[in-house]
Amino acid sequence: MDDFKKLYNLYSKDLYKYMFYLTHDSDLSEELVQETFYQAFISIHRFKGHSKIKTWLYQIGKNVYYKNARKKLPKHDLFDEENCNFDIKSTPETILQLFEQQLELYTAIRKLTEPYKEVVILRSFNELSFKEIGEVFSESENWARVTFHRGKLKLRAALIKGENQ
User: Fold this and answer.
1) Which of 6, 51, 141, 142 is most buried, taking the most CB atoms under 10 A from its CB?
2) pTM of this prediction?
3) Alpha-carbon span 119 to 19, nearest angstrom
4) pLDDT tens digits for 16-32?
């Protein structure tokens, strides 16, 4: 049980960020993280060590998210104020501009289709390696690289399109 607590302490924040970027709902993200660790706890006997424990947890988290998404629960908060870090010296205008840029980026990421959205989130925000992302999706490292690159291109196109409107 102590080992599982250590796993929770090591990975719960990263899993929360992953869930938050997918759902944009802090309460739902917390629930999904709890469900992820519950599912991991009851199926730890199936972990064979073929991947890192971190990627195994992300796989479980991804499945928990998909299962929840099928229920079509409403999404509430777009941003988690605790995750918005601004320099104390920032002016209100700078903060507003940064917030608007962040909103535009998150909105564009949210509109990406799967698997691009998840791969971009896992790589950019959760800093998983391409190998780890491939393991999460049961794909190759090269697949993860190509999917991330294509996701970035789609994201760039969406942001440029938004600027021209």
Assistant:
1) 51
2) 0.55
3) 13
4) 998 888 888 899 999 99
